[in-house]
User: Fold this.
Amino acid sequence: MPANQQVAIVGVGASKFNTVTSGLSYKEMMFDAAVKAYADAGLDPRTDIGSFICCAEDFWDGNSITDEYMPDQLGAKLRPLFTVSGDGLLGIAHAYMHILAGVADIVAVESHSKLSDVVSKKEIINLGYDPVFGRLPHVDPRYLAGLEMRRYLEESGNTHEECAEVVVKNRGNALRNERAVYGAKVSTKDVLESEEIASPLTKLEESQPADGSVVVVLASRRRARKISDRPIWISGISWFSDTPNAEEMDFGQARYALHSSIKAYKMARVTNPSKQIDFAEVDDTYSYKELQHIEALGLAKHAGKFVSSGKGDPDGVLPVNVSGGSLGMGYFIEATPLIKVYEAVLQLRGMSGKNQLPNPKRCVVQSWRGIPTQSGVTAILSR
Amino acid sequence: MSERVKFFPGREVSAEAFQSGSVLLTEYSTDLKYSWASGVAISKFLNELKNGKIVGRKCNRCDRILVPPRMFCEECFRLTDSWIYTKDTGTVNTYSIAYVGTDASRLKEPLYIAVINIDGASPGMGFLHLLNEIKSEKEIKVGMKVRAVWKEQSERTGSILDIKYFKPL
Assistant:
């Protein structure tokens, strides 16, 4: 079954990921990622790239016009650039459309997190809530994750212990990934007994902030074959928005992931994901989100049993977040899924290092935009 | 209403309606804090301001001297090569006299704001700053030569305001 081969990733680059990057400005950090991506693709951004896309949210960057501050460090001065106020995978979707529409043959997508610069993290999350109903005074806004987790476990039949297994797996996977900064050997008991944030969610079930920038270079089929001897195709990509209102959310299933994956699989001619997908990099901002997303993406019917029986382990039938995911690599706000794309590309090229899987050919990468959203993107990557 | 629309169904809302609370508003205010890492280039620049010096970076490919400094050249897309100290004099690229405060009041003392091209930096390089010791507004001209007036060393904090202002040379 030939993959959809219209747009390919021909270069990837990342800055060094860390919990704090106080030595570099965000511009210097982005330059680091961009230089590596363009070297990987063998391209000069000043002449070869037709469109630049940054994925950044103004509140996180602290500028109300983030796009204006992006060009210099990406080689995009006096070149077409715009910012998508969304996650990195949405930028990949825009790049895909630019290429198919003939806007540009080669597009660079960047996303970054400099969360160590942001003091008011919780207030920025709070500003995402509905001003009339959602912004409860004097409470950490993560209460919504607790609400969702309880209802999800109730409906799905998955258990809190199985959520803790996700943390054990992902932080353990991160120990074998030299790029991950939150690798650790933890037990389900450690996870369940860590302090509660908003019950049932505990501290160890939440991914922790990290800094980093990723640049991905994409090209049309014609150019990709000339540029790269190992293009990674975007065989399918789609995005969906549900509701930000807690009263209307379907906590039992991630509808944004379900619907975006149906469309992405169709584009990629994937009819049986649990058989045809070799590995998955899914959103795991919180432990239970990985289970919810595994089910929505059709990778397993009962994600709790799937994970606790080892089927999602690196040597399991369908490894999930072999990179360590956000629980093991860190939470990078809008850059989170672009880091998953970066890790997936290394896997598909066979360049992942100690956590390399044997000969993977196709994977799914999926994003969620964090509380209080029910929005996300699903992409199928193949070689 | 307009020429075309003579009547529009509904009820006009008056200022009193808001003041009396019969029309409800949802109010919210926020206070966001950031602590941006200045990075390699700007940290050096700010530290040198403390020493009463202006420093830039040179790109050996395009031979430009970038002020304020950057660790990468945005034209050539490569790392810059060396630190270069410039003079603390410059030329007014453009200026404006700002008469209005942030609360829309008229400023008693208008601010002379200028873009200053720093001597020793490449054309188009320099920074936004204030002019002062101006005898008459007519004295300010595009192309006017100016010199930095520094704070006393003990008062400098590693800020662009370690230069108090620029004055006519």
User: Anything to note?
Assistant: Residues 26-41 of chain A form the longest helix (16 residues). Residues 7-120+210-232 of chain A form a domain with the Peroxisomal Thiolase; Chain A, domain 1 fold (CATH 3.40.47.10).
